[in-house]
Amino acid sequence: MILLKIELIRVIENECEEAALSRINTVNTMHMVLDFDKYATKGNEFIRLVSMELEVPRDMAGRITRAVLHALRNRFSHQESFQLMAQLPMAIKAVYVDGWRFSKGQTRLRHITDLLDEVRIEDGKLSGYDFGNNSNALRAVKAVFTSISSFVSAGQMTDLMLSLPLEVRTFLEDATLHQEQPVKK
Question: What is the residue-averaged pLDDT of the chain?
Fold first, then answer.
């Protein structure tokens, strides 16, 4: 009789433990959904900043952002990329790494035209529509850098800028000046 009671207590404890774990998993899953909403919100905010700066539709701003981020990623060292990604919104990190061939070596930028060529290659068939002439392409690159500087610390932006050639750095300097603290994640 005592053994049956002990066994019954164990069964009840196990059922309670399983029910508690199930509830914890449900709560954690609900929390993750909320986090994904937050990630999407911050990513949308990033794209909205580019869209407003360029006065273009959001889908075009998204393509421009992707092309510029991929062009930078292809030219930055892995360490520089990881340091930049650490401060970007989660959704923008996903854009940054999408299609990344990590084993592919990086060639450094030498001139602003190298960056524009890389951006156009990354944008593919829509590059003529998204970037147009060099003047519009430069404006688009600057808009993405302005958005990056809204989310990344001044110290990280300084490190990022120092990794670029002087010609590119000089062009982008006013896009990366911090008037305020970066947007909190």
Answer: 82
